[in-house]
Amino acid sequence: ADISVTPTSVKDGKTPLTAPATINLEPLRRLMDERLSLMPDVARYKWNTKSAIDDLPREQKIIDGLTAKALALGVPAAWAEQFFRAQIEAAKVIQREHFARWEKAGMGSFADVPDLGAEIRPRLDALTSQLLRELAVAWPALADPAQRDRIATTMQGMLSVSISREAAALAAVPLIDGSASMLAPNNDLPRTATENGEKN
Ligand SMILES: C=C(O[C@@H]1C=C(C(=O)O)C=C[C@H]1O)C(=O)O
């Protein structure tokens, strides 16, 4: 597709037209991978304690906690929410995959599982902050439609064997579905004054 410059995209005179293709996306990919890699332990904990995989209040707490941080870092809060909701969905897919396997195998309890509240969730919380920082670093690339193929290729390589292709694909959706570029002022379609909330 032709994403060449139109006058509307340079109207503020300081936003770069395209982000440098050199922004390193590897730290972001690695953090996403690391987050999902904790999910087999989460699943083992819940299996042992016969807990539900879904914990919606916990999910909401994560989302509520990141809005202000995202904004402060220059990542649109609505997009950050979308990104983390995808990470959470992918996380639950992995847990469900493990549960299904264990149910089939009539698996008993696991030994030496780290505690969810005391150990795993604090690690997840630390990863949330790190992910937000990397999203901010990567934002110019994420918001650049010209880099979507590169981003998709980068994200294909989730390292961990415990991450299924389905879960990896789900986690990458917000990075490659064009939602970031739609939120970037650069790539906004020209809006009417009314849509911008301006009075004539
Ligand atoms: C990882 C967990 O499982 C689910 C996934 C969550 C996540 O990805 O952060 C949060 C809550 C649960 O719905 C958890 O319970 O902590």
List the helices and strands and how they pair.
Elements: H1 26-37, H2 39-49, H3 56-73, H4 77-105, H5 116-142, H6 148-156, H7 165-176, H8 179-183
Please count the beta strands (DSSP E, at least 2 residues each). 0
CATH class: Mainly Alpha
Which class do the helix and strand fractions yield? mainly alpha
* Inertia-based shape: globular
Fraction of residues in helices?
A: 55-70%
Give the CA-CA distance, first to last residue: 34 Å
What does this structure look like?
Helix content is 62%, strand content 0%. It has 200 residues and is mainly α. α4 packs antiparallel against α7. The protein has helices at residues 26-37, 39-49, 56-73, 77-105, 116-142, 148-156, 165-176, 179-183. The protein contains eight helices and no strands. The longest helix has 29 residues, at 77-105. The two termini are 34 Å apart. The chain is globular and about 55 Å long. It has a single domain (24-186), classed as Up-down Bundle (Chorismate Mutase Domain, subunit A), CATH 1.20.59.10. Residues 1-14 and 186-200 have low confidence and may be disordered. The ligand C=C(O[C@@H]1C=C(C(=O)O)C=C[C@H]1O)C(=O)O binds next to α3, α4 and α5.
